[in-house]
């Protein structure tokens, strides 16, 4: 039996086809990528010691041995400040000085520095009043779109609010107008009641494997309050760093060294007219083990064969 469902946050249409995971190809263990061994690589432009390739960093967090996280201008920016049609800045954040560092092996402290860096660059970019949205994302490994292997994230400021964010905000607004309650609070309450899709329930964050998503096996970190990303205090960043550390260790233990994307969906900035008071910051963690076929690309209808209860159980941590 097939069910047609919609992702409550994005409205994506998904056909639930749980038994499709029994197809023969799915029984084959996925080939994982080769792990990087060396901590330093002479020809890597992002390694500590090779700063000549990325002069004039926009920010650095350092200790006695040198920088630990570093942000630099992207040499091949998606946006620049030359056009009025789409305006913005594009920076690369080098997640760690370690060439072989990755979300799968970073320490809590490394995650904290990285989150602080995200917030620092976000606040800096938001000072420009022409900027309406700031996108923070990460591509890990080639299959997730990374062109360089040294672990890095990207942050792009934009003079427009991107359609996906407009869409999610409008869904949260319509829900509020219809039911007089917050969509995100309703989702969080339902997930807590149901329990089985929860990976981790923290005071400020809920980590779940949603049942309906267009990307099979996506994980979401939902902020329990409608606090803006830039308002997170040191303690809240520390908690989030701890969650990242534990979550990625679990993902590694269960699924191995695989490509993924991270998108942090935050509120628009410098936009007093944005109807985002019922929108909650959240993080999409998207595994890139599968790729879409012609059906998905041609119809915008997605097929999910993931058992979210089972996956959440495997990834659960305290
Ligand atoms: Zn490197
Ligand atoms: Zn989102």
How would you portray this structure in words?
By secondary structure, the chain is an alpha+beta fold. It has a single domain, classed as HIT-like (HIT family, subunit A), CATH 3.30.428.10. 28% of the residues lie in helices and 22% in strands. It has a 10-stranded antiparallel sheet with strand order 3-4-5-7-6-11-12-10-9-8, with helices on both faces. Strands 1-2-13 form a 3-stranded mixed sheet. α2 (108-126) crosses α5. The longest helix has 22 residues, at 234-255. The model has no long low-confidence stretch (mean pLDDT 93). It binds zinc ion (2 copies). Residues 41, 44, 46-47, 99, 150 line the site of one zinc ion.
Strand and helix map with partners:
Layout: E1 3-6, E2 13-16, H1 24-27, E3 59-63, E4 66-73, E5 90-94, H2 108-126, E6 133-140, E7 152-158, H3 163-179, H4 183-194, E8 198-201, E9 205-208, E10 219-223, H5 234-255, E11 260-265, E12 282-287, H6 294-299, E13 301-304, H7 308-315
Parallel strand pairs: 2-13
Antiparallel strand pairs: 1-2, 3-4, 4-5, 5-7, 6-7, 6-11, 8-9, 9-10, 10-12, 11-12
Helix pairs in contact: 2-5
This protein binds zinc ion (2 copies).
């Amino acid at each position: 039996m097939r069910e047609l469902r919609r992702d409550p946050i994005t409205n994506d249409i998904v056909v639930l086809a749980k038994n499709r995971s029994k197809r023969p190809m799915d029984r084959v263990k996925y080939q994982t990528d080769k792990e990087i061994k060396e901590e330093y690589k002479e020809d890597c432009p992002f390694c500590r010691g090779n700063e000549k390739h990325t002069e004039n960093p926009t920010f650095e967090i350092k200790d006695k041995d040198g920088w630990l996280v570093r942000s630099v201008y992207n040499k091949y920016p998606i946006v620049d400040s030359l056009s009025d049609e789409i305006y913005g800045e594009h920076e690369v954040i080098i997640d760690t000085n370690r060439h072989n560092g990755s979300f799968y092996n970073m320490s809590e402290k490394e995650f904290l520095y990285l989150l602080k860096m995200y917030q620092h660059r976000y606040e800096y970019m938001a000072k420009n009043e022409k900027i309406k949205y700031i996108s923070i994302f990460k591509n890990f490994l080639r299959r997730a779109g990374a062109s360089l292997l040294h672990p890095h994230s990207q942050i792009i400021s934009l003079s427009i609010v991107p359609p996906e964010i407009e869409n999610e905000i409008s869904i949260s607004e319509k829900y509020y107008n219809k039911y007089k309650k917050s969509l995100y609070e309703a989702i969080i309450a339902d997930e807590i009641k149901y329990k089985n899709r929860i990976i981790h329930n923290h005071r400020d964050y809920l980590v779940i494997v949603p049942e309906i998503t267009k990307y099979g096996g996506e994980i979401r970190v939902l902020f329990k309050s409608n606090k803006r990303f830039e308002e997170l205090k040191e303690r809240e960043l520390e908690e989030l760093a701890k969650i990242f550390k534990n979550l990625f260790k679990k993902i590694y233990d269960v699924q191995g060294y695989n490509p993924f994307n991270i998108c942090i969906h935050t509120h628009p900035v410098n936009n007093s007219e944005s109807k985002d008071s019922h929108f909650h910051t959240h993080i999409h963690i998207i595994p890139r083990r599968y790729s879409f076929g012609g059906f998905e690309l041609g119809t915008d209808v997605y097929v999910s064969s993931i058992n979210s209860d089972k996956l959440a159980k495997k990834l659960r941590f305290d």
